């Protein structure tokens, strides 16, 4: 007996020793491969200065200040050429990858904690570290720093989908300018955003970061955002180029897409962005397209992006994206982020063996150097960590209000003669500012709907609030928000509330109006699911019907506020409430912005950037989309082989996704298939009405010029979004019924005020991508120019003839 105990004690001892040894080896590996791999470089290279954040550049002898790159009398290209000519091959290769996961985790000795990536310094030449931080809903840096009392909060602006719902490029430009200023004042050089992927399917977990199901709206809004941010001397990384339309297995998924769908839908938004804003950088996506990882695709990154579209900036990978480091550089993916030791070694070996040419290395280095030379760091800009957060709070409040979409209003809004408001549903009190993952922002506060209404002078019904408080107290743990990586795999979704008949009777007695909030959250690393997410849960359905009938019986009204990041089902319940406001996720001032609309301080003018279908499977893409919401597996993401699996082992919609619907995404499909929708693309109500008149269409010099008159025919001042679609009657090829070509938002028009609007559409924009000639082709003949308030409400149209 004793002996057995001794033996097993010994075994346990050996096991513990082995485990310690394993942990040590593991730590050594992680440390030398991912964390401190930059140290090797420091030891190998004779530096005069190692950390170069304060910009005290010394020359190669460590004596004088080297300032040739700051000399503005020389052009950027000259300074780049000069720096390039002085770099050793080793230094060039070193520049092609970031400094590793330490910065990716926002840790380590970076000057700006929370930055997720760097362009490494070349101290010998006085080239500083460049910091990259997430977007796109605001700057994402760590709000607190070790040993410091003060905080480094950033403004949480509205999610991308809300911004595109404004259809207001000037406003989005202002948001971008504010975001760029924040980055500049916190020492960040490049914001990793905006997101320009197409909403191919409503369940993509990152749709909230993206703008629309339509490439023209995506392109116009994206370019406005980029021009705003870059006006501050801060770069952007437009992401995720391209066809990254699902989160499930995003690091391995092969999107099988036709050339026509690529050109007309998935690439088109990026193409408009490059044309209108020439961004400093583009981030390649994780996925493969037709068998090739995007960062390794010369076709996409060099032939299309550079040769075809004349993109002048650099391309960086998404974090740990791609497989073969040398192939990425050769294809035109200039910068590998956040960079690994393995990639560094692979590049050195490929250069030595001659499989990666010096020309390719020089091209990538030149593009990186250009960004460095353009940066505020290079100009020695002295940031003082003090952006004007109060001014930015005002901008976010205004922009959020302008992107909220009024879906239904039976003479209940703006709320008049009501003092006591009953707030129902968890998210009325626990309002959601934005999505999760890298698109989340560390803001100082979020104004809930409750606070917003209080700020606007309303009284919040006590009984309804008490019920929420006791619901929260009984489910305490479920109300703790997961953070960081945990939030990506465990989305925050506290249990919903049900109301008893008696409680509702009490509430209805003491309240003038009821507001139900339906909340949803999603984010990077996982796609949404149909049950209890796209569809309302049984509890939510019951809440809506119980609340609506209790208020209706008492002759009182109910408003539903949708605090969501993506499309949910509305057709089955929309008849019940008297009004529905799609508030999206409006950033840190969201509750105030909703109150601005509900109270009538702001007249709603948002329009849907996507279709709200009746059923999920009405979407043509539904047959080829992962529907199980499998969350990301980080270990697999970092370690699994990226080699293609044998065909019979490949799982549909995970290993590969067939974009069988081709160009029929969003309204292009619903219109073609003549399907009933719950709310069409471009739809949104106002508290006033607009009259459309005097459409005039001319063709001059290969441009279609359109003018139209808009009159505010109602009683309240308001803005209107005017949308111009074109269609091709008697088309000789398969085409969508209509396509958005341009749009504008009017200024605030007073009651009775008119405005004349002018639009220009280059004739070539009517072309389609021919897979026979591999070119854009223009059909001649009659085109219908349609001006409307949504894709299904065309007010005026006129035909023009294109003679080629
Ligand atoms: C995301 C990118 C993000 C990057 C850095 C990736 O996981 O896909 O959008 O910019 O991480 O945080």
From TrEMBL:
GO molecular function, one term: beta-glucosidase activity
GO biological process: carbohydrate metabolic process
Transmembrane segments: 12-30
Keywords: Hydrolase, Membrane, Transmembrane, Transmembrane helix
Domain Fibronectin type III-like: 720-791
SUPFAM superfamilies xref list: (Trans)glycosidases, Beta-D-glucan exohydrolase, C-terminal domain
Domain of life: Bacteria
Pfam family, one: Glyco_hydro_3_C
Entry similarity comment: Belongs to the glycosyl hydrolase 3 family.
Protein name: Beta-glucosidase
Keyword Coiled coil applies: no
